[in-house]
């Protein structure tokens, strides 16, 4: 009887169970084990347990199993070990494993309980959001590199189907009359709607319906759809659910991006946000490709800045939601107690952070500002830049760093120095069309080369005797002839074919170096490569940097009454969650107009936290001025995902207002609140 009960429990247990003997052979397995590991039940029995261990870690596993055999002991799940099981088809699954030796039976059996942790719903959702964010970042990098928007248009359906794991994606572009769409690119297209098919833009078809409503469209099941006609060919192919978003740039819709799936109700809010982000990126690229010839010849850095600026707001909102929810998720009791979930969330948060860094670095291209020299840690900046270049340049280009860790700081505008170095890196890439090596080096330099000294003396009237930091970029590319070297720093001089260069790159770097009281030198040999070296001054000894403001130690006042104005519902929800966990009382509003109409009922507001761009209505800056007039002591924080908006606000806003760049976490929000409320009480 006891044996039958044991058999029933063993079979019914929801975790995978294996009974392993002293020789490491499986003598019993339950159905859950067969399902998790992809075997038939009878295939598992008699199999060595080593067969379930990935090849790369098999030697360590054998050592561990031998040590365990000498000292068998119960080991529960959740012991903070990274464990992976190998399935029958060679794929791998992340698992937790508990071991229980059966000591009472007198022979060395061990019960192994295995649980697949990829199925935790919250972890799955968090990882999925981070995954979508990673795809947006990758497409952003492609958009920067691709000179032909047609290439990006072919890539978007591939990225959409891959990221969403669906069978169909298509880009419909409006023609100039706006009466018809053309099916411009797609994956998994049906015969009744082939590539280049023309479709009327009327609302009785899915693309036209999206155009008429200018909003994302979810189709849970096309077999019961009544808002428009679903092409029978889609249903015949089993494509029952769908999602479509308008391709919009600066308020103008230029097309529609559609995905379809064989799974009913496949799409939700996360998928909609992802598709909108890549759709906006494509729309920005297409619109910019249609500008006049003169604009197409504008400086490349400016073009890249415009492209990235066009998507920064959506991308940074997306990252705010992803990172905010991951941070909240990380602190849930069930997740706090689960080391593997913590590890997965940590990985997702790091991916989100890398995405934010990428956006920030791409936006560095477009900042046009008066030079603001400061002490720049060149070593840290070069490590950071090399990391970005490895992810964005041609993979055939190897990037080497040769930095002197003892290199002193230099005196330069950090944003402009980064832009100059990126400009040189892009030139180096263009000189190595088939790949090569880019070496980035820096070291202290007590005396300038004589030719550079002569040049500086000619410009300044006397040679500078102060020390410099020498930063050089060396490529193994095509090199320059003597004639080209003579004219390399002339504005508008370029050796590239039409449309690929403006000739402003090196002249801009030259201008920056001279404006920073430094110099730039060029050394190049045909067929060998080119070295460009920047000499930037070291700050004089008496020029002590201002001490960076210590991490803000003021705490957020308890019960602080906050008016939160944010038009994006998901961003609003996560910021409200942050504020509430900081002990604030929050009144959330979706628009400035809603907030203003609630003023009479809110006589005791202490802080206004508002986005700058609030959809089509009143903007955040105007709202803040109205609110300040009503409550003179009101603390104000403006937030935005557009760096250009923050630059404008920095110029126009009073000094005691605080600016917050999206994406941000709870700690950055707390610091901003502590700072602005502290200032308002002084």
Task: Explain what this protein looks like in three dimensions.
With 682 residues, this protein is an alpha+beta fold. The chain has 4 domains: 2-118, Beta-Lactamase (2-Layer Sandwich), CATH 3.30.450.20; 123-317, GAF domain (Beta-Lactamase, 2-Layer Sandwich); 369-537, Histidine kinase-like ATPase, C-terminal domain (Heat Shock Protein 90, 2-Layer Sandwich); 561-680, Response regulator (Rossmann fold). Helices cover 42% and strands 21% of the residues. It contains 23 helices and 23 strands. It has a 6-stranded antiparallel β-sheet with strand order 8-7-6-11-10-9, sandwiched between helices. It has a 5-stranded antiparallel β-sheet with strand order 2-1-5-4-3. Strands 13-15-16-18-17 form a 5-stranded mixed β-sheet. A hairpin with a 5-residue loop joins strand 3 and strand 4. Helix 5 runs parallel beside helix 9 (269-289), helix 9 runs antiparallel to helix 11 (300-330) and helix 11 (300-330) runs antiparallel to helix 13. The chain is globular, with a radius of gyration of 30 Å. It starts with a helix and ends with a helix. The model is unreliable at 292-301, 364-370, 457-463 and 545-553 (pLDDT under 50).
- Overall strand count: 23
How many distinct domains? 4
Helix content: 40-55%
Rg over CA atoms, rounded to whole Å, is 30 Å
Q: Termini distance?
A: 80 Å
Task: Enumerate how many helices there are, as a single number.
Answer: 23
Question: Could you name the CATH homologous superfamily of the largest domain?
Answer: GAF domain
Largest sheet: 6 strands, antiparallel
Q: Using the alpha-carbon principal axes, give the shape.
A: globular
